[in-house]
Amino acid sequence: MNNNNKGPLTGVRVADLTTVLLGPFATQILGDHGADVIKIESPDGDMTRDIGPGRSDRMAAMYLNANRNKRDICIDLKSDKGHAAIMALLKTVDVFVHNMRPSAVDRLGLSYEEVRKVNPGIIYCGAFGFDQSGPYADKPAYDDMIQGVSGISAVQSDVVGRPAYVPTVLADKASGLTLVYAITMALFHKERTGEGQEVTVPMFETMVQFHMLEHLYGMNFDPPIGTAGYPRALSPNKRPYRASDGKMIGVLPYTDRQWAAFFDLSGHSELKEDPRFNHVSARLANITELYGLLSDIIETKPAAEWLELLEEANIPNVPINTADDLIDDPHLKATGFWKSVDHPTEGKLKYPGIPTGFSKTPGGIHKHAPALGEHSEEVLREIGLDEKTIAELIDEKVIIKGAKK
Asked: For 307-332, what is the mean pLDDT?
């Protein structure tokens, strides 16, 4: 494992009171890029510790893939001594991030008002389901629920015939990326002015912005000059196409030049001058018919032949990869995207790499995903607690002491 931590966030310390995927995904990205991320867990632990296959107790796949590059402290936040220890930690950090509802974080005595009393310059970030000024403020929020309420599920009715959830945790991950840029923007402001601040990232509003970028469409105007919904994205014929040998490929002629080249190489040059298809606005008005023709044409040749012809004509094309295919994808192999890491208790693990590149301050995988409470003693020593106090906290089960690695 690379312990040479020199990413662009080196020197930034983050207290991470988040669970499941939205928050841990975001804080892992911060850790990947050099931040010292201290994951704070209750004695129950993050539920993802039990989701998916694993080689040992409470170290399941879902947890491992969202919690590298972190240290871990396990503490009973509901106890007075636990609260005091966490407040001592929060005095030392640049960023505190949680994904609890405000009422829950208030009950723990960890509201922004309380935390800034001990650390006025802190970047205090809350990731919620919904903006706290609206009537949905206290509703619980999970990925499926946010996909539904943000319109992402319903918009698929035009394509698959019924509302559907996207089969990836889209809302969690898109909101997690928003959390990353919100935190780094606040850090940039603090670097320039010295000011800390409270930052909020609501999933609902985040996903409505994400979803409606293209789908606001005619309702962009007030009064509207058309309906919502981007026709190209909603065409039921916009899909991977089956070649004559049954293999699926992705094909997307997009510009006037690309469509003309596609009609030529497919033996349908007459379609270049067809008024339905000879300009972007005409193609959009007839998009379902056009994609139906595209589907019929692709069925006339095997996939490998099409991919070669399309590549030669510089028309966007890809094979359709399964999740298993990605492990052996030649591009990902060539770029070294997949990282093999030796974990002290879980053996050899395969991780996705870090997609961002920095010529001077590259990120890296420098810490394994920690066991529950693995760094409790280490972190408490760093914030100034003496050995007698730490021993008492362990004896009273205020903190959980993880196994040494």
From this structure: 97
Q: Distance between CA 321 and CA 329 in Å, rounded? A: 8
Share of the chain above pLDDT 90, in %: 95
- Domain carrying residue 157: 13-211+333-400
The neighbour count for residue 310, using CB atoms within 10 Å, is 24
- What CATH number has the domain bearing residue 298? 3.30.1540.10
pLDDT tens, residue by residue, 71-83 = 999 999 999 999 9
Report helix, strand or coil for 133: coil
Q: How many CA atoms lie within 13 A of 306 on its CB side?
A: 29
Asked whether the beta carbons of 143 and 172 are under 8 A apart, the reply is yes
Domain termination residue (choose one: 262, 297, 319) = 319
Measured between alpha carbons, how far is 243 from 205 in angstroms, rounded to an integer?
40
User: Given this model, what pLDDT does residue 159 score?
Assistant: 86
* Cβ atoms of residues 95 and 14 within 8 Å: yes
Give the span between the Cα atoms of 41 and 372, in whole angstroms. 7
**Residues facing residue 14 across a β-bridge:** 37, 95
φ, ψ of residue 136 in degrees (nearest 5): -90, 5
For 282-319, the pLDDT digits (tens) are: 999 999 999 999 999 999 999 999 999 999 999 999 99
Check pLDDT > 80 for residue 260.
yes
Q: What is the distance of C-alpha 20 from the center of its chain?
A: 12
Residue 296 lies in a domain: yes
Element (H, E) at 116: helix 112-118
**Residue 90: HSE in the Cβ half-sphere, 13 Å Cα cutoff:** 30
